[in-house]
Amino acid sequence: MTEETPGFDEKPDVPSGATPDDAEPKAAPQEGAAPAGDASAQIAGLTAQLDQVRKALEERTADLQRLQAEFQNYRRRVERDRITVKEIAIANLLTELLPVLDDIGRAREHGELLGGFKSVAESLETVAAKMGLQQFGKEGEPFDPTIHEALMHSYAPDVTETTCVAILQPGYRFGERTIRPARVAVAEPQPGAQAVKAEDDGSEADDDKDNGPEEG
Questions:
Q1: Phi, psi dihedral angles at 213 (to 5 degrees)
Q2: Could you say which DSSP state residue 212 is in?
Q3: Which of left, alpha, beta for 135 (phi over 0: left; psi -120 to 50: alpha)?
Q4: CA torsion sign, 13 to 19 to 20 to 25?
């Protein structure tokens, strides 16, 4: 009877021609571990999805920016139209008041602007001025066909260009809009006056030259 030696385990029998490593049991593969090739494919797929999401985000951002720009343009256009409509309405109202202002002006010229009528007239003129109405047209200023309307024409020897010599009816503007041109009487230089004046100036210059100081 063979006695077992304490502290030593029996080794499995190793077939002849086999190495000791063959006798050791191999560890079973871990469950759930993906091969390296599958992990690379998953990363590539996630990267492609991320690129698609990023591209979609850029497109949506561009759409939002375009909508914001269109909305800002719409707001500016609406504000501009609102101001234009307001200016047209005010200009139409002031145009209707022009005959009244003309009557006030004629009454002032004839000394008939007295008492309560004077106070009402001045209040109306003040309100019209606050709304932006401006009167223009003065005697002696050069004639400008864009703001003047010539109702009378004459010649004058003392003018060098077409000049407004009388304001028959003042003009009015609202902002840059001319509501009514100033109706004026104009005078042009006398035909031939410029040539005569030039000849006279030349003769005077020659006389001065001839009558210059004599050299000693």
A1: -65, 135
A2: S
A3: beta
A4: negative
Longest CA span, the chain: 174
Do the beta carbons of residue 151 and residue 184 sit within 8 Å?
A: yes
SS3 135: strand
Structural contact between residues 95 and 179, judged by C-beta atoms closer than 8 angstroms: yes
CB neighbour class for 113 (10 Å; exposed up to 12, middle 13-18, buried from 19): middle
pLDDT for 10-42, tens place per residue?
555 555 555 555 545 555 555 555 556 688 888
- DSSP element (H, E) containing 91: helix 36-109
Burial profile 9-29: b = 16 or more Cβ within 10 angstroms, e = fewer: eeeeeeeeeeeeeeeeeeeee
pTM for this prediction? 0.58
Task: Check residue 151 and report its DSSP letter.
Answer: E
Running DSSP on this structure, what letter comes out for residue 142?
A: B
Q: Which SS3 state, helix, strand or coil, does residue 20 take? A: helix
